[in-house]
Amino acid sequence: MLKHWIRPDKPDKEELKSRLKAAGERLEAQQLRLKDKKLPVLVLIEGWGAAGKGSTIGQLIKHIDPRFFQVFSMAAPTAEERRKPFLTRYFERIPEAGKFTFLDSGWMDEVTKERLNGVLGDEAYAQRVDSVKRFERQLTDNGYLVLKFFFQISRKEQARRINGLMDDKDTAWRVSRGDLWQNHHYERCAEVFDRYLEDTNTPSAPWYIVDARSKKFAELQVLETLCTGIDTALQNESLAVPLLQNVFPLIKMPKLSEAPLKDKTLSEGEYKEELKRLQSKLRMLHNRLYRKRVPVVIVYEGWDAAGKGGNIKRLTGALDPRGFEVHPVASPEPHEKARHYLWRFWKSLPKDGHIAIFDRSWYGRVMVERLEGFCSENDWQRAYYEMNEFEQELHNWGAVVLKFWVQIDKDTQLERFTERKNTPSKQWKLTDEDWRNREKWDVYEAAVDEMLQKTSTTYAPWHILESVDKKFARIKALRIVTEALEAALK
Amino acid sequence: MLKHWIRPDKPDKEELKSRLKAAGERLEAQQLRLKDKKLPVLVLIEGWGAAGKGSTIGQLIKHIDPRFFQVFSMAAPTAEERRKPFLTRYFERIPEAGKFTFLDSGWMDEVTKERLNGVLGDEAYAQRVDSVKRFERQLTDNGYLVLKFFFQISRKEQARRINGLMDDKDTAWRVSRGDLWQNHHYERCAEVFDRYLEDTNTPSAPWYIVDARSKKFAELQVLETLCTGIDTALQNESLAVPLLQNVFPLIKMPKLSEAPLKDKTLSEGEYKEELKRLQSKLRMLHNRLYRKRVPVVIVYEGWDAAGKGGNIKRLTGALDPRGFEVHPVASPEPHEKARHYLWRFWKSLPKDGHIAIFDRSWYGRVMVERLEGFCSENDWQRAYYEMNEFEQELHNWGAVVLKFWVQIDKDTQLERFTERKNTPSKQWKLTDEDWRNREKWDVYEAAVDEMLQKTSTTYAPWHILESVDKKFARIKALRIVTEALEAALK
């Protein structure tokens, strides 16, 4: 793209000034419509070192109320950040509905740097590009406006600016070794940048190359593109997004009604023996996966009163508390609802070597959110694909991903509800909502069946835990987890 | 304390077993009362390396529903964490109301390590102890149960355990160089630990020394102490806390009604000239404070429509967006309301070298929360002291702390409300709540006066910005900020 890019004509001083003023006022007016329409805007400013990315952002935000934007300057990932999937720190920073996030360099900078210094080979680079495209598409599909700018300057101009900054001790810190390296390897960098720009230039999140020779002109180019982008996005607000074909390696799952429950039992003796054996095995595996830095993500979904809590406890009972977290998932709080529905899960990912257990999960999207109308039909239909992508991201990162559906029948649920109602120490577990959900058993079952069919992948399979006999379900979960960890540690 | 500690008698095997069972059941029952009564419990487990802290936590949590606790294993602070006040990462991890946090080592470990390796001299150590005591007292004063355990083992026992762990490659990673060092300098460590235990042994958060020779017995000691502590705390729930005398270096502030507004104006010409001059000065100072890693915290409070937003923009207009954040503060979300009211502000502190601007702040505690009855009288009265402490913590860390009260009179507010009402692009700024607050002007004014008297300290002074003429207020803010930064950078 850089090769064939035609430098735009710079307007004269007078025109520049009046257009800057007009665009600034336009953005000022837009911020309120954006707020009303709850449009989130992510502006990514990438480009050469010393091209003026930061100072352009400084100019842009003057037109926006401080309550409506955040600026993040992304340095190289910290040691802590390197222990998560590489997109995590970007996903964590996506804006709330109705607000802007400006990123001063982002995932392009990270990927191209790693490409240039040889960390990413061809295959790893291709995987990164895939991840990036999916990330951006997931954002735009979910109503985000994603604007990507590349600040272009010549080698000569870059050298001039670097020298200018270095001359003053108060600005010298701004010049990184990376900037100097870039200038010395300008052609090689340009090639890698160009390739990346082409690889990630998608219709929903295209690149804009900015002629950054003059600061004011660069500002104008960004400002006008930003305004146009916002206008277009505001017009598109109720557009449904095409559903992508489910191309993930799926595992055929039985329907819930066809999964036998009755003979899935264990005697007390078998249970105790197996529990002891599997827990001590798991304890040992946990130490090993910590040492080998394998991350593990375990999802629990299931009927109310199916025994999720007790099942999870038998798992965690064998784990070193320094190496796992349980995330109980309730309905989202306002700041969570204001973002992509996967945001709060990205924020809860384990570090490598750790285990994260989700007591309910992102699958709420295709169950409660679908059935209670908390999202549109287009939203939840798209979600199957998005969740398969999300889990593939985790898998590619090296995580073991396991998903459990804790299954009981309707009669068993009634028995347990009644018992909870009559046992003071268990009453807190039973809410009016549980009774309401119970009335909708059949529609829930259909939704669960669809979910199991569409999201059980080879890399993140669903397992049904037959839990009329809770002992059976617990041993089955422990067995699946230990086997999966053994396989991963081989 | 360690010197005079008398090792408790270990019960025989039968008794140990039955008491463990009883205490476990007691804790299981307590977790629900805790949840109902919204009691937050912070359990700090400190002690010698390899004393069994982690595995004891592993046993304790078996009695608690995974939804009700979190475990954090605190390693040495990361480079990122070192750029915040040292208590930040602990404050961030305090539990929600009705839940437990278990810390596997915490601030004792950090402080004593730094004492042992010479990072903390006598004075710095004394300051740390002060900070710790204040932190713990602020938690207990605000209804937290804080339980601190020290796991005691002999030098010989420690050596035995370290060797045991080292023998197996899957557990060898658990032995740190610190553990080995400790064992080789056992006496010296014991002295520093003992001193710290005595220094921080307070009535509201006392130490419990645990005989950790036997794992089961250690578990019993913690479990029984925990249960007793919870029972006591549940009985105390509505206890008011003594108000401490305001012993901070206060600056005498005028009453708002005595602060003249009328002649505080600037001509357009003076304004433009001063704005340009001060902004360019501030730009330069921002670079220097980034380089010198000085953190800055600026608080804006003031009447609705006083011009806070525009004032902040004139400040940020001069700043490099990579080095500041504006935090607009609205009413707290559920997960914020469930914790100490300063929690969300601790989470928003700037890194060193950065500027954090708070558009409304923790002072909501003694204004809106006081006047709308969102907290008890005891709560808001205590808050003056707590906020002085909080800011002193920031000051000791090296931060410049400035607080602005943006002042207008009642007539000016009415004019601006009317203008907002009649200007479509400004209507979003005016809410029904603004009108309701306006009706309570007099009680608000009295509360603000009290706040200014009680929380304007030499290290974090309040400044009144006369904002009937917004230009005047903006220039005054810029002048105060640049002068404070110049002084700090000298």
Protein model, in words:
The structure is a homodimer of 490-residue chains. The first copy, chain A, is of the alpha/beta class and 490 residues long. Helices cover 50% and strands 12% of the residues of chain A. Chain A is built from 19 helices and ten strands. The first copy, chain A, has a five-stranded parallel β-sheet, sandwiched between helices. Chain A has a five-stranded parallel β-sheet with strand order 7-8-6-9-10, with helices on both faces. In chain A, α1 (13-37) runs parallel beside α9 (215-235), α5 (122-141) packs antiparallel against α15 (377-397) and α11 packs across α19 (470-489). The longest helix of chain A has 25 residues, at 13-37. Chain A is elongated, with a radius of gyration of 26 Å. The mean pLDDT of chain A is 94. At the A-B interface, α1, α2, β2, α10 and α11 of A face α1, α2, β2, α10 and α11 of B.
Order of neighbouring strands in the sheet with most strands of chain A: 2-3-1-4-5
Radius of gyration of chain A, in Å, reads 26 Å
- Give the biggest beta sheet of chain A: 5 strands, parallel
| Morphology call of chain A | elongated
**Which two chains have the most extensive interface, and how many residues on each?**
A-B, 50 and 50 residues
Oligomer: homodimer
Number of helices of chain A: 19
How much strand of chain A? Answer: 5-15%
Q: Structural class of the secondary elements of chain A? A: alpha/beta
Distance between the termini of chain A: 44 Å
State the total count of DSSP E strands of chain A: 10
Overall mean pLDDT of chain A stands at 94
Range of helix content of chain A? 40-55%
Q: Helix-strand pattern of chain A, N to C?
A: HEHEHEHHEHHHEHHEHEHHEHHEHHHEH
Low-confidence stretches of chain A: none
